[in-house]
Design brief:
- It is a single chain.
- By secondary structure, the protein is α/β, with parallel strands linked by helices.
- It has a single domain, classed as Rossmann fold.
- It contains seven helices and six strands.
- A six-stranded mixed beta sheet has the order 1-3-2-4-5-6, sandwiched between helices.
- Helix 2 links the parallel strand 2 and strand 3.
- Helix 1 packs across helix 6, helix 3 runs parallel beside helix 5 and helix 5 packs across helix 6.
- The protein is globular and about 55 Å long.
- This is SGNH/GDSL hydrolase family protein.
């Protein structure tokens, strides 16, 4: 256990009762926003074929967007279909952890994908999944995507700045933010060890890219910036091929 992990473990012990009460309070008062994507799979566009799989939690499902077009998937479709005959599939649900996605992928019929994008980690943070176990699950996720689904490019999205979520009071925001920072840092390093895997940071977005109305999920501008980066990465990878 490294120094950061020991520090977080100590904080969890010292602040345990406060964190539990605040967590209950946040869940009780935070509005439940819908998943806007109604068509999680389809084909559209024109040009060279491109198959895309999006997996993850509520952010991958577009929670926080007002319409399907404003979701992460919707933004990706808008930007990719003018240049590709796009075949897309979304496997994402509110509340999913990395372990949940792995279990779903194990039950999913194998199909090759050119690009797979994941958005996972926040629920692992709130569920307090240990760092070592989470990294092992991310390793298994990469192996599954590159093996069973023969993904040519895997893009793992990092953890958002959880400590800045408006819905979270202090000290809960500071504790969960530090946990998210730790996972984000470790995921960055892990991606560098794998060929065909890219890391995308969800940090450093413009101030206009604000949270959704619940103060917890990404707002439409966050999804727009996120999609713009992903499309740039996908384009660069295909040019390199």
């Amino acid at each position: 256990m490294n120094r950061r992990s020991r520090h977080l473990k100590l904080l969890k012990v010292l602040l345990g009762p406060v964190l539990l009460i605040q967590g209950w309070w946040v869940r009780k008062r935070t509005p439940v926003l819908p998943e806007p994507v109604k068509q999680p799979s389809g084909t559209c566009g024109r040009g060279p074929a491109l198959s895309l799989l999006l997996v993850g939690d509520s952010s991958a499902a577009g929670v926080g967007a007002n319409t399907e077009a404003e979701s992460l998937l919707g933004q990706l479709i808008t930007r990719l279909k003018p240049h590709h005959t796009l075949s897309y599939t979304m496997l994402a649900k509110t509340g999913q952890t990395t372990a949940d996605v792995l279990a779903e992928l194990e039950q999913t019929v194998a199909k090759p994908y050119d690009v797979v994008i994941s958005a996972l980690g926040v629920n692992d943070v709130t569920s307090q999944v240990p760092v070592d176990r989470w990294l092992q699950q991310q390793q298994k996720l990469i192996a599954c995507l590159q093996g069973k689904f023969t993904a040519r490019l895997v893009i793992l999205s990092g953890l958002p700045p959880v400590g800045e979520f408006p819905a979270l009071p202090w000290p809960l925001n500071a504790f969960l933010g530090a946990c998210a920072d730790q996972l984000d840092h470790c995921l960055t390093q892990m991606c560098e060890e794998h060929r065909g895997v890219c890391f995308h940071s969800l940090r450093g977005y413009p101030d206009t890219a604000t949270a959704a109305t619940d103060g917890f999920h990404p707002g439409p501008d966050v999804y727009r910036h996120w999609a713009e980066y992903l499309v740039t990465t996908i384009g660069a990878h295909h040019q390199a091929d």
